[in-house]
Amino acid sequence: MLLLKAKDLYVEYLGRTVLDIDQLELYEYDRIGLVGANGAGKSTLLKTLLGKMPLQHGKIAREGTFTYLPQLDEVIVQDVQDYAIVGKLGIDRVQAETMSGGEETRLKIAQALSGEAHGIFADEPTSHLDREGIDFLVNQLKHYSGALLIISHDRYFLDQVVDKIWELKDGKITEYWGGYTDYLVLKEEERQAQVAQYNQYVAERERLEQVMIEKKNQARKLDRKESGRKSRSESGGRLGHQKSQGSKQKKLHNAAKNTKRRIEALGEVTPPEAVRNVQFRQNKALELHHPFPITGHDICKRFGDKVIFDHVSFQFPLGGKIAIKGANGAGKTTLFNMIRDRESGITLSPKAEIGYFVQTGYKFDRNQNVMAFMQENCDYPVSDIRSVLASMGFTQQDVRKELSVLSGGEIIKLQLAKLLLGRYNILLMDEPSNFLDIPAVEALETMMRKYTGTILFISHDARLLEGVADQVYEVKDGGLVRV
Asked: Which Gene3D superfamilies match (predicted)?
């Protein structure tokens, strides 16, 4: 059954083409992962297909009903038909202001799965979920009988749930069969083909340019010889030789022109993207010398009858990359807030300067351009700032944009880059990889490893934990245990 059909879909925003799709169809058996860079228009596509954004041009025919799990929206607590799902997701029917980010996400999922719809459109549904929540969601969606169209940066999740990938790039959709790992293999094959094509193009262009130079040089030598002969009186025999020389000159000049036309016919082949990197150097004024700049001694914390920490002690080492994990609502973010606020029992080095990335960090005034925003409270030169932004997927044109035109994912990337380049020596990062595209997550992983200061980060991303953390702690049953 055809559930949705879009034709001649076109969306423009502030003079930039966001969507330019000739035709798109979604069937009841489709299980599709929608991928693309932050700002490519993935969320816009979902909202447009669902009728939640006005259609600028084209036609959309919807034959089925759809449930939508949005990104970065406020959770609306409403009745959920299937309370068994709510229980398995580990949430109670409580007010949104008392929920952690993971609990909010779980409620959204419960609302979607309990409805009766032909399909589910989801925008980063695993964000803020712990591993148990992700595994439960995977199992539910595997047995879901309707269509799926899911934006996600979680490779494990996509591999488990989808069998087709739609890549959105430059407003167009390219379809790849298989899960996300299959898509990566195909993309790497495309990249290798691009590298081979570019190398072949460069070699052929250099060969032709050398041929053209040689032909021109040969023609110039003959021109000089002919000029010398004209200054002398010539016999009839010599005149015949001169005609022969002139004919040869003409052929050489024509060969040079033909070679030039062949060079022009080659056109321009786009080179593969260069890998840009930055070395982090800590401000001397912010250097820490205490071997354990963050310590906790016999800390206790409770909310009402719920015990979060019960006589917990810890020492986090200088320069460490410390991962904090645990179930949704266990108290991970609470620990970060206690460190930031220097609550009773928490001791920080006197020179500690804390930078904090939070789950709701996308809410701020956007009336500023990208480079001006990045240069605030930053000691790094513009060249280093540009390198970091480039590694996170920002182009030269993006750097000149106003913050108001950036997507939610781009804003988060910008805040992470600003944090890493800020005047801090301790970073607290709460789910930093949420809402980032895969290349940005990989760039973030590299930058976190190279950062010279101390980082505490909360994450359920197994790859980020393995790639960055040198110590992992779990918040569980009122304790903080190293695992």
From this structure: P-loop containing nucleotide triphosphate hydrolases
